[in-house]
Amino acid sequence: MKTFRGNIWLILGILLLSGLHSHAQEETEGIEFVMNLSKEKLGLNERLRVDFTMNKDGDNFKPPEFENFRVVMGPSQSISSSWVNGKRSFSKTYSYILVPTSRGNFTINQATIEIDGQTYKTTPQQVEVTAAVDKPNDQKTVDDVADESLHLVAEVSKGNPYLNEAVTVVYKLYVSPNISVTNYRPLDNPTYNNFWSQDIPVTKHTAQNGTFEGKPYRYVVLKRVVLYPQKAGKLDIEPLSLEIFVDVPTNRRDFFGGRIYTSTSKTVSAGRRTINVKPLPEAGKPENFSGAVGDFDFSVTTSKTQLNASESLQAIVEVSGKGNLKLFQLPEPELPSSLEVYDPEYDEDIRTYSSGMEGKVSNNYTIVPSFRGKYPIPSISFSYFNPETGSYRTIDSEEINIEVIEGPSSGSATTTNPAANKQLVVPTGEQFHFIHLDPNLAPIEVNRFFGSRLFFLLLLAPLLLIPIAIFAFKKREAIASDVVGNKIKKANRLARKYLSTAKKELGNKEAFYVALEKGLHNYLKAKLHIETSEFSKDKITGILSEKKVEKTDIDGFIGLLTSCEMARYSPFSNVQMQQDYEKASEVISNLDKQL
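User: That's the sequence. What structure does it adopt?
Assistant: Structure tokens below.
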């Protein structure tokens, strides 16, 4: 009986072990890891979807290299799991979207994964890439939808402007109603070489309805800039590049039936634009033309026309209107040499709109007459080019007469007539009178100066002044012998003259660098006598090189101009502004020694 029971247990154990072994063998044999292609033949302009699917989760998935293809999306994962009739089904897929890089027959090599400690590999598959097809029939991905729904456009107001004529560039982002933009950031801001540029801040991004290539779109103005070309010929406007973050709808729905959106980012560029800049005509160009382009008014006024000697008056030379107000030189009045004239104070009131600069610029001269008389301020002229009419115009100011009423005469001292000072003696008939013999004199108090305290003070004063005079003489001699110090003082005075406005604007980034750039340009105008239209970095470098200026000083000057341009788009600290101001003083000093 015991032997029979023992045999039963032995048989049951053998059956159980064999069942477990067969179950494990079935599980091992049932693992699948395969590669599926969306198509085996595609055009060069089509996309290929590659899926790596397994029926049991694994680790250390390694895709192939995808030679001769570029991955535009992936890997993306999808997992599905379900129970049907008591059986569990599981599927996990790694998906890639590929774009072929050339035509030919290529192989998608095997991928590998580890499942339950064993390594599984897919079977390589062949793909044929043909020439581009007319109508690709790929299913659009999220990136495809974003590409078709985003367009950054640079709208240029004039493609064929004159030199120094305003050109407005407006950057618009067109967005299809199918997607929504969440944010953006600039990747590459254009530097606008060979242009004087001024940004117009966009304070509010308001979506507006419009069309792009005949389709309805919404658009937002992201950036406005006004350009004044400083060189004739074909000039490139560098592209603006942005990274746009968008939400793209998918074909999937959530539990409540709402469409599921996928977030992605796309890089868009406005593209490079080229304009053809016309030179200003030589025919009819006035001799006093200083580069003004636009439509202007010109006037010369004085604060008073009658005053006394040693009093001051203000003479204001002003240009107002619309055009390149910051890019030309005001004419200088010719005043009589007998009037003391101080360096002018430059003032500007300019606003920049989409059409260009508008406002006024002026030089304020302080004049002090020393002698009485009448002093005429002759008429002076101002010339500009009007791009609307394509011709030059010259405006002459009115002559102004200044009358100094009281003060010394400027001629030689007048001599008096002795005969005129003689008095006529008229006899009265009583020329001789009785002479009193009693003089009735009184004693006079004698004020003794010699030996007084004041006498000794005045006597010793020259002795006390001798050491003071010696000390002052040595001090003056030391100052005169300090050649380096005198050069530094001279350089400081010169720098203050051209950089005074910039120093006042320290701490105000935009105004400081505009004033700094104008001060540097004015210095070169005064030294080299060149027109504003010639102010390009290459032109400045060439002229300074011809003048035998050291390369380090040329590079310093060009570096300052570059900082002035970069300051419009980059944050600059107060420390950086102070350093640029000191660098400008140093550069002007070095250039002045060599020029």
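The chain has four domains: 30-136, 144-277, 294-404, 483-594.
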